[in-house]
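Here is one chain, start to finish.
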Amino acid sequence: MGALPLSIALCLISPAPARGLPEVRAVPYPESAPTHPAQPDPPAAIPSFDTSTPEPAPEQPRPPGAASLTVAGGGKGARWTSGDERFSLGLTVRAQVRYEAELEDESAEQSFLIRRARVKSSGWMFGRDFRYQFELGLSPRDMGMTDDGARFSPLLDWFFEFGQLRDLTVRVGQSKLAYSLTRVQSSGNLQFVDRSPANAEFNLDRDIALDLRSYDLFGLGRLRYFAGVFLGEGRDARGATNFEMGSFGRVEVYPFGNDGTHGYQVDFSRAPRPRLMLGAAYAFVDGATRDRGTRGNAPEDGGTTDMHNVTADASFKMAGLSFLGEGFVRRTRRVAGPSIPAGGNLDPGRDGWGWSGQAGYVLAPRAVEFAARYGETHPLRQSPVARLRQPGAAVSYYVLRHALKFQFDYHATLTDGAPGHLLRLQFQGSL
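Its structure:
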């Protein structure tokens, strides 16, 4: 009889069999986790000229054949990937809330608005080599809202890329033309609240295009090129057009190798080694119906403009320092329209040149950056391009890099001899 109690005691203190009660592990309270985790490096970009577009990989392992849904912060958004990884759908959202005050000699005005409200989706179909991206702009400024209604549809981008060949990737659809570096860099990745006046005047914007490109020509990690044709009608082209179109070509050289950070104007990585990008581009617009090529207003006479556009730019980063410079030249030839009066003069084309240069430094360990910029625009011949000089400075606080940030900048402007002041404060949030 004494053996029975002993056996019961042994059973009570022995470990449960593998098929018994489930294993219970200690889980620390949320308070024990770091309250300020280290910010990750900028996400890897999908193969596009806009290197800010994220391509997050599934973070958690999953059973073979099971689809995955990943939701991440830091501007990566959400991504659904099929079990066989042949299909992927990513979604990100971004908004900018801006206060702006502009002061001149005898006038002052202010605005408080949603400057940009964007919804973007990107991914691949039938394998990672067949990619797509579309982006919607939903704010009043995105759609060019006036008292008479919207000038544009909310569709900003919709294109497809066929990347089976490394040195001959094909893109077709509506997107930013690969002409100016700072224009193609995302508006969410800027060092200042917005781009320079020189870029605003001379850049080429979105259009429907077919182009060839390579993000790593010859596999050297030092060369990229872009070349193609575009409709020349700009965003929201519709209806039939003539055979006057546009063409462009761009080359980029990375003497120290391309690490993918030149899609960002800020050196968050603070890597001690130098990183340099040198780029140049040419674009011709044949019979442009707008006075800035793919943008602007139609001439009053109803005519067209042939345009030659040249730009060069450079980006340098090292140890938290960043430098960015760009220059532009535009020459035009006006073609008379049907409404020009007899003996009258054509509206002149917007011939001119401009440049801007900026530099910034990110303080460590706080993500605070101080930056300065100077830019000019000048007319050529009888052009209506403004003769402008604009020095400026910016202070930015990056809570979560570009995904969550506060920016303040101030510019003193001298436009055709008239002084002015521009002050802007902006908050950006991204998911």
